[in-house]
Amino acid sequence: MNGKGLLRLIAIAVLVLPLGGCWNSRELNELAVVSGIGMDLVPETDEYRVTFQLVNPSSTSTSTSPGSGKPAVVVVSATDKTMFGALRRASKHVTRQLFFAHTQLIVLGESLARDGINDIFDIFERSHELRLNSEILVARGSDAASVMKLLTPVESLPALGLVKKAQNTSSVWGENRPISVFDVIHGITGEGDLTINAVKINGDAEEGKKKSNLEGSETLTETVMSGLGVFRQGKLLYWMKDSEARGTEWLLNQIEETVLDIDADDKKESVAVNIIYSRTEVKTAIENGIPVFHVTIAEEGSVNETDSFVDLSKREEIMKLEQELEKKTRTEVMQAFHKGQQLESDIFNFGNELKRTNPQEWAALDGDWGRIFAEGKLDLKIKAYIRSTGMSLKPYIPEGK
């Protein structure tokens, strides 16, 4: 065969090879799209119960509205000694193969979280089906299956609604932050401990599964974000909430935006300041054998509401408010730090920072970082600035009223 003939043969082969198609292709009408996964521990059998929230292909985005037929999701559960076994055992309950490429949410039941989560994420790193960027929550006061079965208003897919709820409150309230499966694995394998966003069911969980829960203007059963679950050595230990949760996010440099009610001269918590910028810098060191955490927080905010007489045209009044802002921030940060020390749980990433910046000092520690962290000192510096007071400098409320 001459050279021209060989080139022609190669060209034909190159053109023909792609015509074979994808060897592992699957038709859409053969797949059951999983939007959320709930993981629970069955104490009686020490098995895993995995609950899948499946998108109902025969429904529409408005199918859960009053008077409609099928809900937008179908929920099935399977139990097995391993997570992967439960995934495959679910085939006994569904007519289509489970498809995880669009899984938005993972929920951990409280019983599973208290027993320990270090082993359950092995499948996420080994399997090509499961996503590491799925949002993860821990159910507070309930199992994950109950959370998966709740129907929610506004969003037809409950799992997507929970993800958006977590992201929304993270961006404007500051007691939570976006946490993915990858983040949890990184926390488990790192130095120190971790926190996971908590979700709580308000109302009757059984009623929340029914379409009637969506037929009124007020939802009687709902899911709400409820602070942070503290995990020490992979086991749920404590629930951080309110100021403790927000103080934790401050130390982790995760505050995007939040609101602080600070004191005026004549009334407590009467001035609402919207924090629009926050930056936390951390430096760690070992001084006289004790870890010292040098933390600097710079924040900027705007006055959005006053419920007392504050003359914002005067610079000295602005400076008073800035001092109150620093005081309120310090209180919340110290509450979180002291709780972490009380639990001997470094959920603030100080251990990883010390290991990164001072590897020799870290190597000299005896390995019991939880106890060493509890003996550490926090050197906290806060500088707050009020950048805006809105269109009005003089309050509507007369002085002395």
Can you describe what's shown?
The model is unreliable at 60-67 (pLDDT under 50). The chain has 401 residues and is of the alpha/beta class. Strands 1, 2, 3, 4, 5, 6, 7, 8 and 9 form a nine-stranded mixed sheet that branches. It is built from 13 helices and 13 strands. It is globular, with a radius of gyration of 26 Å. Helix 9 (242-251) packs across helix 10. The protein has helices spanning 3-16, 83-89, 110-115, 122-126, 144-149, 158-172, 181-189, 205-208, 242-251, 315-342, 350-357, 359-363, 369-374; strands at 31-42, 47-55, 73-80, 97-99, 105-108, 135-140, 194-202, 222-232, 235-240, 258-262, 271-287, 290-306, 377-388. Strand 1 and strand 2 form a beta hairpin.
Structure in a nutshell:
The chain has 401 residues and is α/β, with parallel strands linked by helices. The protein is built from 13 helices and 13 strands.
Topology:
Elements: H1 3-16, E1 31-42, E2 47-55, E3 73-80, H2 83-89, E4 97-99, E5 105-108, H3 110-115, H4 122-126, E6 135-140, H5 144-149, H6 158-172, H7 181-189, E7 194-202, H8 205-208, E8 222-232, E9 235-240, H9 242-251, E10 258-262, E11 271-287, E12 290-306, H10 315-342, H11 350-357, H12 359-363, H13 369-374, E13 377-388
Parallel strand pairs: 1-4, 1-5, 5-6, 6-7, 12-13
Antiparallel strand pairs: 1-2, 2-3, 7-8, 8-9, 10-11, 11-12
